[in-house]
Amino acid sequence: MGLLMSVILLLVCLVISNIISHYIPFIPTALTQIAFGFALALAFPNIRLEIETEWFLLLFVAPLLYNDGRHFPREQLWQMKAPIFGNAIILVLLTTIGGGYFIHWLIPEIPLAAAFALAAILSPTDPVAVNGIAKRIHLPEKVLNLVRGESLINDASGLVAFNYAVAAVVTGYFSLREAVFDFTYMFIAGAVLGLVLSLIMTWLRFTLRKQGINDVTLHSLLQLLTPFLIFIITEEMLHASGVIAVVVGGIVHSLLRERTETVLAEEQVLTENVWSTVLFVLNGIVFLLLGLIIPPSIRATVENPFIDNGLAVGYAVAIGFAILAIRFVWSCLFSYYEHRFKKSADTSKPALANTLLVSLTGVRGAVTMAGVLSMPLATASGEAFPQRSLIVFLAAGVILLTLIAATVFLPLLSKGEAAAEGENADFLDMREAKSRLLLASLKKLKAEMNEENEEAAYQLIDEYKRTFRRLHSERDSLEQANERRQKATEIRLMALRAERKYIHEAMNGEGMNKEVFEAFEKSLDIREEALSTDVRSGIVYLIGKAVRDWKRSTGRYRKRAGRDAANVVKLRLGRDVQLKALEAALGQLETYAEEHGKSGIAYSVILDYKRMIDRLKRPTASFDEIAEAQKEELRLKVIDVERAEIRRMFGNGEISRDQAKELRRMINYIESVTLHEHAE
C-alpha cells in the first residue's frame, strides 16, 4: 500500500476512533486508537510505516512537548520542582537499575546490559494517554501536574540511559563517568539552546513586524516551525537534548507572549486554531502507529517455537508490575520525605490512594515503542542483538498493561479522592466556567481596542461586565439553568418557525425574488442549526432542511420576476419581507406569552425581536449603526477566543464533556445572532 493511501487510511481511522470515544467515553481514545492500528496491521499486512527514532522524536515528540511547555502552569511547575525532577531523573535511574536487574533475574537469556536497555526505555511516561483519561474522570490537580511535568523531562533522561545501555550491548564497553558527563552536557546544553533559539525566533517575528510584515498566517507558520527548528539544531548540530530544548522553548515562548500580548493579539486566534488541529492529528497518529507496529514487532516472538507464548505474556505482565511497583515505592518514600522534612502548607499527609494514583498515571507509550524498535539488529562483532524480538514483545506488553491498568483502576481511585476532597475535586460549575469565558473576552477586547473602535469597544466591555455581575448574582442550580436554556430554545425555535412560515407564504402568494428567498432560507437555516442542540431537534431540522431543498430544486416554490427588479428594489423588498417576518414572529411570541404567562424567558426573546425590528425600521445609517457594526466585528473576534478558552479548560480537565458542549451551544447561538444582525 502506498504511503499516501496509508496516511489517508490512518486519518480516517483517527476520525472514526474519536467518534467512537464520544459514544463510549469510558474507554480512553488512546486505547481505541491502538486497537484500530492493531486491526489495520492484521487487515493490511502490506502497510509499512517504519519511522526511525530520530524522525519520530522530531515529527511527534518535539511539537507535542513544545505545546506542553507553552501551556504548563509555570507557578505549579516551580512549586513542584522537587517531585517533578525526582520522578524525571532519579526515578528513571532507579527504574533502569532496579528494573534491569529484575528482568535479567526473571529471564536470564537477556544479558544484563540488554535488560538495562529495556528497563531504561520503559522508564519515560506518556502524558497523552493520561490526558485522555483525565478528560472523562477527575484526577487531583497535583497528580495531573506531576505526571505532565515529569513527562517534559523524563523522555530525555530515559532515552539517554537507553542509548548508553544499547551501546554497551553493541560494543561491550560502558563508562559511568562518560555517561554522567554526557547526560549533564545534553541536559544543560539543551536547556540553554532552547532558551537562546526561542529568543531568536521571537526576535525574528518582532523584526518582521517592525518592517511592516504583519501577515498573521506567516507569523503563525513561524510559530509552528519553531519546535522543529529548535529540535533539529540542538540534536544535529550540537548533539544536545532536543527534547529538553523544545520544552524550554515552549516555556520561554509562553513568557514572552504574556509580555507582548497586544502585539500578538491578531495572530493568537489563528495560531491556536492551527495548533489545536496539528495536535489533534499528532496525538491520534501516535497511538495508531503504536497499534500498527505491535503485530509485526511481536510476530517473531509468537512464531518462535523455543518461546512459549503464554510464558512470554507472563513475563510482560511481571515486568509491567515490577516497573509500576518501583514507581509506587518511590512515590511512597518521596511523599513521606516531603511530609517529614518539608514543612509547607501544600504538603499533605501521605495517603495510599494518592500514591496509587501517582503510580498508575505512569503510563508508557509511543516513546517507549519508538525507542525499542530503534535497537540495532546486530552487535559490533556481527552477532545478532541478544533476544531483540523478545525485548520488543515485552515492551509492547508493558505499554498495553500500563494503559489498561490506568483505564480500569484510575476511575475507581479518583472517585475516592474526589469524595475525600469534597467539592474542590469536582469540575468547575457552569457559572465559574462562564465567568472564565467572560474574563477571556474582556482581555481580548482590551487588546483589540484602538482609536477607531474605542467607543464600540467600551460599550461591549460594559455589556460583558453587566453579564459578569448578573452571572455572579445568580444562585440557581444547574438543573434550573438547563431547564431555562431548554425552554428558551423551544421559544426561539417557535419564533423561527413563524418567520419561515411567513416567508414561504410570501414566496407562494405575493411572489418574491428567488435570490432573496434563498438568502432568507440560508439565514434561517443557520439560526435553526445553532438552536438544534439535541438529537431530536437536530433530526427534525435536518429532515425539514432536506424537504425545503427538494422543493427548491424541483421548482415547487413559485419563481417570480427577478430580472425585472433592480438590485435596490430587491434589497428594499427583502427588507420589507424580513420586517414583516419578524413582526409575525413577534406576534406569535406575544400570543404565547399571554397564554402561558409572561415569563422572564419569553420576555427576553420578545425584547430581542423588538430590538431587531427597531433596527430594520431605521431609515438611514447613523453613527450609532457604525458603532454597532464595530461591536459586532469585535464580538466575532471575541467568540474565537471563547472557543479557544473552552478547548483549554476541557483539555486541562477543568470542565466535563457535557459542560464543554453546553458552552459551545451558547457561543454558537450568539454567533448565529451576531452574523444575522451583521448581515442586515
Brief summary of the model shown:
The chain is mainly α and 680 residues long. Helices cover 80% and strands 0% of the residues.
Structure description:
By secondary structure, the chain is mainly α. The chain has 3 domains: 52-277 and 312-425, Na+/H+ antiporter like fold; 428-475 and 625-680; 477-617, no CATH class. The protein has 25 helices and no strands. The chain has helices spanning 3-23, 29-43, 53-71, 74-79, 81-106, 112-121, 127-134, 141-171, 176-210, 216-237, 242-259, 261-303, 309-341, 352-360, 366-373, 388-421, 430-448, 454-473, 478-508, 514-531, 535-553, 567-596, 600-617, 623-651, 657-679. α2 (29-43) crosses α12 (261-303) and α15 runs antiparallel to α16. The longest helix has 43 residues, at 261-303. It starts with a helix and ends with a helix. 37% of the residues are buried.
Please provide the count of β strands.
0
| Percent range of helical residues | over 70%
Sheet-strand content, in percent, reads: under 5%
CATH architecture of the largest domain: Up-down Bundle
- Average pLDDT score: 75
**In one word, what is the shape?**
elongated
